[in-house]
Amino acid sequence: MRNTRLVLSVLLLFVTGATMAAGFDGKVEWARRVAVSVPVSGIVESISVDTGQPIKKGQLLLQLEQTPFVAELEEAKAARNQATGDRREARRDYKQTKELYDRGLISNVELENAELKSKRANAAWSAAGARLMRAEYNLGHSRVVAPFNGWLLGRNVQVG
């Protein structure tokens, strides 16, 4: 995890549709003004809109360089797979050790060691799952899309 945090300020200005009838005074006002930011750190790879440009809901506005996010996700998947295997092995060993203990063939210490190994494997599996969720979150938030139709009022970030 990086210590710095990129804050992208992309201002989106949205207006409500208004029709003006002849003979009536009217005023068009901004319906919503939203500042959009990226909750993860990274290098800006592309910006897809310019100031003053109309924006459609779901349109990509900005994307961070994807390589570190994809690599983090792959690493987290591998760690989860490893932890899954270790957990399965620890459970199997505990079950076998318990059977031997119940038959009086091994000591209480060996049973306790197998139980601790199983608990450590479960904890490592849970931690690997949390790292995987964080990696998926980071990758998913490395792109900014427009939450609704509007116009880009300004941006406080550049590529690179």
Structural features, described:
This protein has 160 residues and is of the alpha+beta class. 43% of the residues lie in helices and 21% in strands. The strands form 2 sheets. Strands 2-1-7-4 form a 4-stranded antiparallel sheet, with no helix packed on it. Helix 1 (67-102) packs antiparallel against helix 2. It starts with 9 loop residues before the first strand and ends in a 5-residue tail after the last strand. The model is unreliable at 1-21 (pLDDT under 50).
Looking at this protein, list some descriptive labels.
3-stranded antiparallel β-sheet, disordered N terminus, alpha+beta, 160 residues, 4-stranded antiparallel β-sheet
Please describe the topology of this protein.
Blueprint: E1 10-15, E2 30-36, E3 44-47, E4 54-55, E5 60-64, H1 67-102, H2 108-140, E6 143-145, E7 150-155
Antiparallel strand pairs: 1-2, 1-7, 3-5, 4-7, 5-6
Offer a concise description of the structure.
It contains 2 helices and 7 strands. The chain is of the alpha+beta class and 160 residues long.
Beta percentage is 15-25%
SSE string, helix = H, strand = E?
Answer: EEEEEHHEE
Spatially, the strands of the biggest sheet line up as 2-1-7-4
Low-confidence stretches: 1-21
- Number of DSSP strand runs: 7
Tally of separate helices: 2
Radius of gyration over C-alpha positions, nearest whole angstrom: 27 Å
Q: Which structural class should the secondary elements be placed in?
A: alpha+beta
The best one-word shape is: elongated
Level of helix content? 40-55%
Distance from first to last alpha carbon: 19 Å
Biggest pleated-sheet summary: 4 strands, antiparallel
Q: What do the pLDDT scores average to?
A: 85
